[in-house]
Fold each of these.
Amino acid sequence: MEFIDLKTQYLRYQSAIDARMQAVLQHGHFIMGPEVAELETQLAAYVGVKHAITVASGTDSLEIALRALGIGPGDEVITVPFTWISTAEAILLVGATPVFSDIAAADFNIAVDQIEAAITPRTRALLPVSLFGQMPDYDGINELAACHGLAVIEDAAQSFGATRNNRRSGGVTTVSSTSFFPAKPLGCYGDGGALFTSDDALAEKMRAIRSHGGLQRHQHTLLGMNGRFDTLQAAVLLGKWPGFAWEVERRMAIGARYTRLLRSTVGVPEVMPGNTHVYAQYTIRVRERDALGTKLKAAGIPTAVYYPKCLHEQPVFASLGYKLGAFPVAEQASREVLSLPMHPFLSETDQDFIVDAVKSALI
């Protein structure tokens, strides 16, 4: 059994993916080829913004967004301690300071009512994460940010395809970042990511930063990086793109079925009002997390833990001065979460097998 079944996905779209990649091999424009621009047009239209800027990875996209907003040494950016390290890593990489704020137990996303307490005169931006596949309350987040004159960056690495109040993830904040890592809802066959904004000036800066700080060759107006998206990876995404809407629907249906079957046995992910959920991971909560994972492995069922430690527990962030107990909701989640196999090709037979194994293990 596959945790994320990329093999079956490839077979479904093989002819389209192969044809798209072969076209790149034939025309030879391996860096910023025509497929990159074509993909960016498709992505921007889907999200509902003026600009989509593809980049080399989801981590690069966060760093580019922060640089384009002029955030650096002496600045603070508020984010969550329960996320993949890239979210806070990018803040440190631009010389700014991550400031953590706790999550809500129901959806693993930032607790909006706690953000204001973390704001100081040095705060420049809010960087919430749309974790596991659904968005936090961006109406409340944007309103708070506007009151304090702050930018909002959505880390949408796991939520591409999700909506909140009929607006797509990636299109509800100053700028948004996503990832095309192979395991994501829309994944390529290597690293990749994208930025989304309707701010023309910000888009121009981000395009320049991704290509060594310049929009024209040998004209470097900003301190940039080599953050360009690979043309072959753009071809892969274009090959998958016609099936993406179907995959989103399948994710929603499979996730809802998991919840219906498991609600009486374990803590299940709650879909918040106004939201759709793309279930980049289907994550349950159980006190006997490690024991359950061991039993499922013995039954041939792969699982994963996202994330076994909060960021303030990681040695690289020790200098921030946070102690264990600073973020009790996030810390408890990190000890209880377990992600089950989740992908658009998961059959009801396999899902029933997984559900029965979970229930049997917890008797």
Amino acid sequence: MASLAGLLKEKGIEVTGSDQNVYPPMSDLLEKLKVETRTPYRAENVPREAKLVVVGNALSRGNAELEAVLRSGVPYTSMAEVLKEVFLRDRLPIVIAGTHGKTTTCLLMAWLLTSAGRQPGFLVGGIPRATGLSFRVGEGEAFVVEGDEYDTAYFDKGPKFMHYLPRVAVLGNVEFDHADIYRDVTDVEHAFRLFVNLVPQNGLLVVGNESERAASIAETAPCPVTSFAVSGNADWTAEVRSSDKDGSRFLVRHKGSKALDVRGPFWGAAALRNVLATIAVADYLDLSADEIQTALSSFEGVKRRFEIVGEERGVTVVDDFAHHPTAVRETLSGARLRFADRKLWAIFEPRSFTTRSNVFQAELADALGLADAVIVSEVFRSARLPKEQELSEEQLIADLRAGGADAHFETGADPIVGHLIRECAEGDVIIVMSNGNFGGLPEKLLRALSGEEGATVQF
């Protein structure tokens, strides 16, 4: 929603907003945009002069502001509908979808087009480190958008991506997620099948072949299909030649023939899949090999996606958005390549609905077990999830220890900082993983390591 506010302001439309909680990086973006933001939700937050209210999908009947909107009779709509009618209708929409990797792939795609002078529009749920802007109206033909499979609004329970008019669609992978709105993985797969069915015959579907469900969906696509895979059969493949702290060098092949020799700030299979997806789209849009290589080598990444937020006393602190076992596994696998021979700490907050539930109880232990040491915070509790369906922190710690990990439970950000100050050592890498603010943990840890706030650090 913050990014949509930016797009609307760029078109000269006056925007205000409200939320229950506002925290970085989006709060920083809103401040930069000078968008007045009110918090928490209250009926009086709705401006009397409002011409249109965009209702976020987190709101349901009973919310004070939503009820005020309904009483007033002011027109209201969803974010997805505004995006479709105001920004996508007359463009070439490139919609990046899949369970994992959407945000990074989307920003990487926008960067390739921007670097090549194509002046794309884009709207992404994350913020690039280089520019700090997650949106742009753009003057070019293409508009890149993150295709979210989450529901649209309280009055429209279908996925947001069903509104986005995809001419080019990327379907990177399909797994079970969003346990609060999808019954099972078959239900998730059905949503993605509906999405793929939107692509016209003169469009393109780019599919990740390493995901069996994504590949199966692509078999019935009504449009041309091209595929990618780091390992296995696909039209676009990558072979890693070397990796170090600065990135990886890899050879990209198209249908078996050498296409590109790339070096860039990418580590691990998940990152390479994102790169391959963007290369496939770039090729369809007739970007040259030189344009693609130049853009990839200069990509600076996305905030809160394996972002190094600082180093103190030789301890590196990384902030990451991982909140699904697959994302946790890929993050830690990439860290092994980037920080070879260094001790890895995984600090995990079960915050998303899916990881707060016990649906991935065993899988989380397997994924977090790739770290040398693990600290699990308490489950971010909500009345929406019955106690008997919650993730068991005790069982998670027991499973991690049974697998050989040095695992501990702490009740929140401040106790975790205290634990780390006592136990970490020079050369360690601490990876903080949550899809929320986690009490400002990365910043608190860096301050404590630097000796601020009365912390004593001894190695």
Amino acid sequence: MDFIDLKTQQDRYRKEIESGIAAVLAHGRYINGPEIEKLETELAKFVGAEYAIGVASGTDALEIALRSLGIGPGDEVVTVPFTWISTAEAVALVGAKTVFVDIEADTYNIDLKLIEPAITPRTKAIMPVNLFGQMIDYTALNSLAEKHGLPVIEDAAQSFGATRDGRMSCADTTIACTSFFPAKPLGCYGDGGALFTSDAQLDEKIRTIRNHGGMVRHHHTLVGMNGRLDTLQAAILLAKLPHFAGETEARGRIGGRYSELLDGVCGTPAIEKGNTHVYAQYTIRHPDRDGLGKFLKERGVPTAVYYPKCLHEQPVFEELGYSLGDFPVSEKAAAEVISLPMHPFLSESDQDTVVEAIREYTNAGA
């Protein structure tokens, strides 16, 4: 049983993928080839944003977003401690300070009630994370951000393809960032990412920063970076994109079946009203997470823990001055969450094997 089955996906789409790769090899434009512009057009159309900009990784996307907004030393960015390190890492890379606020226990997303008390005169952006595959209430957050004159940067690395009230993730904030890491709902075969905005000036600035700070060769107007998406990765994403809606539907169906079968056995993902969930990870809660993980491994069921330690507990962020106990909801989640096999090709028989093993372990400890 695979935790994420990329082999089956590749076999199903092999013809389109290999055709796209062959086209790049034929024209030889490995950097800034025609597939880049085509992918950006298709991504913007899919999401419903005016502009999409391909970049080298989801981490680069976050850093470029912050740079494009002029955020740097002396500034603060509000985000969560229960996420992958890239979120706060990007803030540190531009010289700004991360200000953490806790999450909601049921969705694992930022607790909107805690954001306003964390805003200071130095706050220059709010950067929520759509953890595990569903969006937060961006209508409410955008209203709060507008009240304080702040941009919102959506970290949509795990929510690409998700919707809220019919609106796609990456369509409703100042800037949105996603990742095309191979294990993401839409993944390439290496590192890749994208930014989305409907602001023409930000679009131009983002494109400038990702290309060493210049739109014209040998003319650099900003301090930029080498943040370009490779043409080969764009070709692979173009081959996968037509199948993505079907894969997203399958993820939702499989996630819903997990939740139905595991109801009352362990903590299952809560889906907010109006949301769809792409289940970048299907994550449950169990009071004996480590014991359950060991038991499942013995039964041939692969699992993963996202994330066993919060960011404020990481040595690299000690200088922020936080202590264990400052974010109890995040810390409790980090001690209890475990993610199960999830991909669009997961069979019901494999799902049943996973569920039966969890039931067996839980009942034995009852």
Amino acid sequence: MGAVTSPWTAPVATGPVRGRVSVPGSKSVTNRALLLAALSGGPASVSGAPATRDTALMVGALRALGVPVTVDGEHVAIGAYDGLRGGGAVDCGLAGTVMRFVPPAAALADGPVAFDGDPRARERPMGTVLHALRALGAAVDGDGLPFTLRGSGALPGGDVVIDASASSQFVSGLLLSAARYDKGVTVHHDGKPVPSLPHIEMTVEMLRTAGVHVDDSSANTWHVAPGPIAARDWAVEPDLSNASVFLAAAALTGGSVTVAGWPAGSTQPGAEILSVLAQAGCTVEPGPDGMTVHGPDALLGVDVDLHDASELTPTVAALAALATTPSRIRGVAHIRGHETDRIAALAHEITAVGGDVTETDDGLEIRPAPLHGGPWGAYADHRMATAGALVGLRVPGVEIDDIGCTDKTIPDFPGRWTALLAP
């Protein structure tokens, strides 16, 4: 379906939500796999790639660099080619994986590559990766979107010191292309703890799968040796952060929801939702059919540090707003620089529907309060929109102003959500 731009009234659950859902593939795995497939020189492929805006933006970025890409549903094929091309323009949209992962690859192009994105993307932190690329030998015009990389077909590489406390994507972006640099790259982080470390672990694991030598034995240091990136066929597992929204529906309604294809082991931070739901009183049950969550009679508040799984914050905040005891979400100061300032946005929207919320420096404190319907702002942020849908399960009249922004990671979220709630 096309993007829904008029207000969407979130459907109310008439009873315990019960069902089985399949969620699209992980956007984090997908865009890493697409870039590695392209940097291998092809031919290579990615299967299970979700038909989302973030995927389309990465495909468009690779094509702008001269990479032959063919998309057939959830299968993306990378054709063989000889060298990245300059002269093109990359639209980053609002995809952090495009704006942080593609510039280090574009530095290998044989000419200039222009980058820009959505208005909000121009506000997101970019200086760290651009300053790092200059230190590694790249020529860059600008310190944030829009900017231009002036590639010369190669990059010296070497050692670089960065402060990645605003985003783990700064580290991942440099590591993904590092093997193609003349001397490889050694990234040293100097600053507050890096958020979402599982995302860096995901990057390292995928690089090793592609035959790249990565040494991460020293804290806050990652060394990638120069060498080829193996062309291979990547299979993408379900996006567990997206899955968390559907599991949360069971938690909020005392129902039972199964997510099909839940991996036995995963580097995705979204897997942490299981421990959060257990703390809230849910029963978590893995099985051959997938991962099942059974909701409790009374949902309990939680006290959680989501520093390494901060993308779960909107979902957990929605649960907390409807819990029977107070909640505290900690360790997520860096999400003020995500698609929107998610801490401020969540506090504002939950308060607007009657919630009792306090912003802290690194998170939220949420106390039980009777909620009522009303407008819910999505801020063009897919996770803010799905948080509103969760609140709307229990609160009639929650109207989300831009449910269409969920196309960023979940194609036809309204249709999937309505189908799950169908008797």
